[in-house]
Amino acid sequence: MDKISIVWLRQDLRTEDHPALDAALKRGKVVPLYIWSPAEDKAWPMGGASKWWLHHSLKSLENELRLLGLPLVIREGKSIDVLQEVINETGADAVFWSRTYEPYALKRDSEVTAQLKEQKVLARSFIGNLLFEPWTIQNKQGKPFQVFTYFWKTCLQQDQEFTLLPSPVRVTSKPIEIESLPLENLNLLPKNPWDEGIAHTWKPGSCYAKEFITYFLEGGAADYGSRRDRPDLPGVSRLSPYLHFGEVSIRTLWNCVIERLGAEIGECYLRQLGWREFAHHLLYHFPKTPSEPLRPEFENFPWMDNNRSLKAWQRGVTGFPFIDAGMRQLWITGWMHNRARMVTGSFLVKDLLQSWQNGAKWFWDTLVDADLANNTLGWQWVAGCGADAAPYFRIFNPITQGEKFDPEGSYVRKWIPELAQLPNKWIHQPWNAPADVLAKAGVILGDTYPYPIVNHNEARLKALEAFEEIKALK
Description:
The chain has 474 residues and is of the alpha/beta class. Helix content is 48%, strand content 6%.
């Protein structure tokens, strides 16, 4: 008699190179289960853009599993309660899942494991979203790394020959059919249709993840090192949401880069995958960092509480074109180029003296690739308060950053069409353009496009003064 295993799906919404699914298929019948349990993560409930992605990702996975003869079961409620219900309804004697590393998930999974074992139900978790487990990479003192270079050097000393699991074949036995919620009942899609731009930009699902990989590797991957900082050029992979939701395994992506480009040419991109590993390493070892600075002196930083400035930043109407282009790209598409993320982040915490936590919350709600580990690392890095962070006194100039990384102004013109007719010389600083140039371009400052909400040079000095305050408290 076949044994019955539940595959508890979370951030592993695929069928290929899926250790938990593979193990379950080898032992008998399988019940793929997704549990929508938003109340379990009270600190960081899933944001709107991520919910949009999840809806379409589950729909894609449902079709993918159906081709294997496995109906996807969708339920809502507390994870352990739903698992118990499905065990009772199916007679399952095992639950398999891929590990995730958010603080709430680690606590929940530990409790689930303990309760299942009490009931003599086999509970097994697998590495499915990282190359290396966070607890396996340590410094010589057996402690977690806080500097990326040393962390990644240690990772590269590990075995990097990742053997992928064979693709699953269609099951021939009759599937176990139990009640499942219609996907629409989860209410993941917005009631007000703000998602048109996201829907036009993205196609969630593992089949599209493969297309993105192919497009990237056959396109600009070989020039990734020279193009990755240019938001005006198609130089990045845009695979981050597919990786977060596990629509492609990180091992698959790693192997594809090695096979197509080789380790030497692909090193620059593989290093970026290393930063993703580092982010999860830090989140695992320092679970309070999503809301608290890793460097404790920043708990006393004199942030300003200015809702008007925060709203201007969120809406992309700060008067600095490179900043506003990034923020509008985020709002319209649910994604922002990494260079723009760094510069807009610096502007928020250093020009506007808004707390990095405010920025992290906004990105969390608006990014389709919102990932707690990556989001935390990025914001603590730009605020100067995290591991291997940029020094606080490193303050990006929004004008020179635009001129350097968007030299023709293409990025600004795409996302801020009201500035499209400005010459390159003035596209990143329209307030300095002569009156006749503005008139010819149809730009009316303070009307069609705002004046800068701060003077960057003055704001920079205020930020440095604030930093000196906390230095004195050490």
